[in-house]
Design brief:
With 265 residues, the protein is mainly α. The protein has a domain at 100-166 and 249-263. It is built from 9 helices and no strands.
Length: 265
């Protein structure tokens, strides 16, 4: 349920941002038109007039390229970016919440074992957030069955926690693979359409060929940009998962040693 809520929250935030940017674009255009009407003054015909090319804002250029690339394919590429970012952001939030100071947790569990026994150590793990504390709790539940059962429980539940940490990453890899494929497909279809126009015209016009190739290549650029962004986030998530898993393994070994030491008292 938390994953669904995070996903919907990210999607709503991105939709609100897109609508706000569009509204800002319309307001800026209206302001520009009104300012032109107010600031209009007669110009001396004899004076030399130098017209500097106006540079469009970046978001207007993105809109123009989006339209020129074809709304169908560009919309699917943007959808890959939106859904990929939503899953990646949800995973980043989840992994940051799953991170635990293992040294501090081990110190608390050791003090609880020495002062209050196994039940006190369970309470510490139960009140601590993160997969490491959950693994500790599962191991302490089987304390009375021996160290071997504790080790088996830690290993089994560690695999479960690792699967939860890696959950959703397959969707990110899917969007990484699909985005450039959609871009290449749009390029091929755009080139086919350009050759159809050349065939109908009966002549190879440089303008016609250049226009068709430009429209076709925009989709490829869009797909590659989306794949690059998601690939960076995916590598970050993998590194984060590896760090958490490594801390889980080290802490689990320390817990087993702690339990053996407690039993030999």
């Amino acid at each position: 349920m938390k994953k669904i809520f995070m996903f919907l929250a990210v999607m709503g935030l991105m939709t609100f941002t897109a609508q706000y940017a569009s509204a800002q674009d319309g307001d800026s255009l209206a302001t520009a038109d009104s300012s032109e009407l107010v600031a209009f003054e007669p110009v001396d015909a004899a004076a030399p007039v130098e017209e500097a090319p106006a540079e469009a804002p970046m978001h207007q250029e993105i809109k123009r390229l989006f339209i020129e690339g074809g709304a169908g394919f560009m919309a699917t590429i943007i959808a890959c970016l939106v859904f990929g970012l939503a899953v990646a952001i949800e995973r980043i939030i989840y992994l940051n919440l799953a991170s635990t100071n293992t040294e501090k947790l081990l110190k608390k569990v050791e003090d609880a074992l020495n002062n209050g026994g196994v039940e006190a150590a369970k309470d510490v793990c139960r009140n601590t957030r993160g997969p490491v504390a959950s693994i500790f709790y599962q191991g302490l539940l089987r304390y009375d069955k021996g160290v071997e059962e504790v080790e088996k429980s830690i290993t089994s539940y560690g695999s479960v926690q690792m699967g939860q940490l890696e959950g959703g990453l397959s969707w990110v890899t899917l969007f990484i693979a699909i985005a450039p494929m959609l871009g290449f497909m749009g390029t091929v279809i755009g080139m086919i359409q350009a050759f159809d126009e050349i065939q109908r015209a009966g002549d190879i016009s440089p303008t016609l060929v250049a226009g068709g190739m430009k429209v076709a290549l925009i989709t490829t650029v869009g797909g590659l940009i989306v794949a690059i962004i998601l690939q960076i986030l995916y590598n970050y998530l993998i590194a984060k998962v590896d760090g958490i898993v490594l801390s889980m393994e080290d802490a689990s070994i320390s817990l087993v040693d702690m339990i053996v030491k407690y039993q030999n008292k």
